[in-house]
Amino acid sequence: MEEENTEKEWHLTQENYIRFKNIAQREMLHRRAMMERFEYRNRRLRFVMLIFAASLIGLIYSLMSIYLMEGSFLDKKILQEDISNIVKNDGDLRAIKQALITQPKVSDLKILFSPQENHYRDGVALSIVLDDVRLSAYRTGDKTILPKLEPIIHEYEETNPFDKLQTGQKDYFENIRIKTGIEYPKISNDVNNLADELFQQNQLVTEYLSDSKMSFWISVTALFLSLLIGGYQIFSSRPEAMRRILLGILDDNNGQKQEHPNKSNLKDTSEAGVSA
């Protein structure tokens, strides 16, 4: 009779062990399903953050490009064609100046998606535009405009020889021309060459300033992105650490549950032996 009771208790202990094992396995599967769902949400969050970062970089680049351009721009091709038509229709220097003043500005959005070489800055010297029209006539072979264009260029150089220079520089050269009076033609070639050299130096200074501004904003953007990426890495590492902790706790609980039925089984067996 006692042996039958001992056998029943042993079977009951085995059933409890199997029941505990099944519960532990179900909990393990449930936890892993939760972890997989958590990781899926984490991947979605990373994808959204990546899209947000790319959009933010594009926006910063666009704003930085607009800021570095500093001012309005004119379409080079349209302006040259307009002046060429005026010259072909026997227009004078006054009409050409008016065409330059009333030339429509190019939108900032168009400038972002087109080379800067296709545009003049607003306030460009008319002498530069006239020289470009003259060069274009030689390139295209349309030399019929040259007999009308050359006198206009010569007239403009006589009345505005220092048009390409900045305002303060232009005033200094004008004072030299006024003070020398009738002696100015003797030094006019040297003064004009000096003005051309100064204009080239101004172009280089402007280019260097633009490069320095670009470098500054690139550094600011790199700092911002490094902070953004560092913050994202800290944020994304927290779920990964939490997942590892939960899996570790789950493994410990599973091991304890597996050990508990074994201890109960050994205890019941020992008690049955003593009773026998």
Structure description:
With 276 residues, this protein is mainly α. The chain has 2 domains: 116 residues; 87 residues. The protein contains 8 helices and 3 strands. The longest helix has 92 residues. It is elongated and about 135 Å long.
Record keyword descriptors for this entry:
2 domains; 3 strands; 3-stranded antiparallel sheet; mainly alpha; 83% helix
In short:
The chain has helices at residues 2-69, 76-88, 93-101, 108-112, 126-140, 146-159, 167-180, 184-275, and strands spanning 73-75, 105-106, 119-121. By secondary structure, the chain is mainly alpha-helical.
Class by SSE composition:
mainly alpha
Low-pLDDT parts are 257-276
Mean pLDDT: 73
Whole-number total of structural domains: 2
**Whole-angstrom Rg:** 42 Å
Number of alpha- plus pi-helical segments? 8
What percentage of amino acids are in beta strands?
A: under 5%
**Count of individual beta strands:** 3
- Estimate the helix proportion, in percent: over 70%
Largest sheet, in brief, is: 3 strands, antiparallel
